C-alpha cells in the first residue's frame, strides 16, 4: 500500500480506505479503467456514489485523467506526469484502444503532435486516440 499512500500524501489528500482501494486498482492495471470496472471489483463494499466522488476528487487533484473513448464510456488512467496537480493536467500523450481486448492504454512516450489551429478557434482541450492491436494481443 506504500505507493498508493505516497500518492495521496503528494496530492495532499486525506488517507481513506476507498481512496487507497481505488488507487491500488489503478496501480495494478496497466490500462485505463471505467467507473463500472471499478464497481465490478469493489461494488459490494462501496456504493457507486462514493466511487464516483472518489474519481472526481482524483481527477480534480491531478491523480487520474480522463482518457478519450469512442464508446462514450468514460475511462480514466493514472497520471504519469509529475506536474499534474490541482485542476491542471499535462497528460498530452497519445492514447491507444485495442480492438481485440478493448483496453485503452496511455502511450506516455508518445506526445500528441502539434496541430495547426484554424483561425478564430480556441482549443481548450483535444485528444488523440489511436486504435489497433496492443502488444499483449499481438500473436507471436
Ligand atoms: Zn494528469
Ligand atoms: Zn489488446
Ligand atoms: Zn493517459
Description:
- The chain is of the alpha+beta class.
- The protein has a single domain, classed as Arc Repressor Mutant, subunit A, CATH 1.10.10.
- It is 29% helix and 20% strand.
- The chain has 4 helices and 6 strands; from the N terminus they run H-H-E-H-H-E-E-E-E-E.
- The protein has helices at 2-10, 17-27, 35-42, 48-60; strands at residues 33-34, 64-67, 75-78, 93-98, 104-111, 129-132.
- The strands form 2 sheets. A 3-stranded antiparallel β-sheet has the order 1-3-2. The chain has a 3-stranded mixed β-sheet with strand order 5-4-6, with no helix packed on it.
- Strand 4 and strand 5 (104-111) form a beta hairpin.
- Helix 1 (2-10) packs across helix 2 (17-27).
- The termini are far apart.
- The mean pLDDT is 91.
- Bound molecules: zinc ion (3 copies).
- One zinc ion is lined by residues 98, 100-101, 103, 134, 136-137.
CATH-assigned homologous superfamily: Winged helix-like DNA-binding domain superfamily/Winged helix DNA-binding domain
Please bin the fraction of helical residues. Answer: 25-40%
Which residues sit in consecutive blocks of at least 5 with pLDDT less than 50? none
Structural class: alpha+beta
Number of strands: 6
CATH C-level class is: Mainly Alpha
**CATH-defined architecture:** Orthogonal Bundle
Largest sheet: 3 strands, antiparallel
Order of helices and strands: HHEHHEEEEE
Q: Describe the strand arrangement of the main beta sheet, using strand numbers.
A: 1-3-2
Mean pLDDT value: 91
**Ligands bound, unique:** zinc ion
Based on CA inertia axes, which overall geometry fits?
globular
Q: How many structural domains can be distinguished in the coordinates?
A: 1
Cα(first) to Cα(last) distance is 35 Å
The Cα radius of gyration reads: 16 Å
**CATH topology name:** Arc Repressor Mutant, subunit A
> Which band does the percent of strand residues land in?
15-25%
